[in-house]
From TrEMBL:
One of its GO terms (molecular function) is acetolactate synthase activity. Its EC number is 2.2.1.6. It catalyses: 2 pyruvate + H(+) = (2S)-2-acetolactate + CO2. This is Acetolactate synthase small subunit. Keywords: Amino-acid biosynthesis, Branched-chain amino acid biosynthesis, Transferase. Pfam families: ACT_AHAS_ss, ALS_ss_C. It comes from Allgaiera indica. Residues 30-105 form the ACT domain.
Length: 186
């Protein structure tokens, strides 16, 4: 067996083994699902995930078409490529589902999340929290003598980074909306 195959970790595979050695890689995908806005639809969609042991990393839902009574569910999920394909196929078969888009594979997409952070602190910690909020373009939406509530929008990574910096400064509570996403372009 060549050194190239050994480096790729293929040393345990024979030439007759047709399985893809990378098929067990866990991928994260953002799915946009257009559904009827009626009672029980969200529960049915979520039931598909929980009943089969699929993970939901983020979930947002809102009505997007008032006249047509349609809502958009944005789900960030993870799994092997086969699991992701299964999820999409099962969603597409559901009666209240009109469209399923995998924004991860359909091309470039914009993903954002909104979060609120309550940070309590005094003296230099308050000054540092305000300085960091300015760097991250977070807005102060509430202020008392003991605490601030910051509002920040951005990628999940940006929000995670802001949280990591706020923890030693007195972070008390976080509320996150989950990911909202749209494909780019026409």
């Amino acid at each position: 067996m060549s050194a190239l195959n050994i480096k790729k970790g293929a040393s345990s595979h024979s030439a007759y083994d047709l399985r893809d050695p990378y098929s067990e890689v866990i991928e994260v995908h953002t799915l946009a699902v257009l559904v009827d806005n009626e009672a029980g639809v969200l529960a049915r969609v979520i039931g598909l995930f929980s009943g089969r042991g699929y993970n939901i990393e983020s979930l947002t839902v809102a009505e997007v078409d008032h006249k047509g009574h349609r809502s958009r569910i944005t789900v960030v999920t993870s799994g092997t490529p086969q699991v992701i394909e299964q999820i999409k196929a099962q969603l597409e078969r559901m009666v209240p589902v009109h469209e399923v888009h995998d924004l991860t594979v359909e091309g470039p997409a914009v993903q954002r999340e909104l979060a609120l952070f309550k940070v309590a602190g005094q003296g230099e910690q308050r000054v540092e929290a305000l300085r960091l909020a300015d760097i991250f373009r977070a807005s102060v939406v509430d202020s008392t003598l003991e605490s601030f509530v910051f509002e920040i929008t951005g990628t999940a990574e940006k929000i995670d980074a802001f949280a990591d910096l706020m923890r030693p400064l007195g972070l008390r509570e976080i509320a996150r909306t989950g990911v909202a996403a749209l494909s780019r372009g026409a």
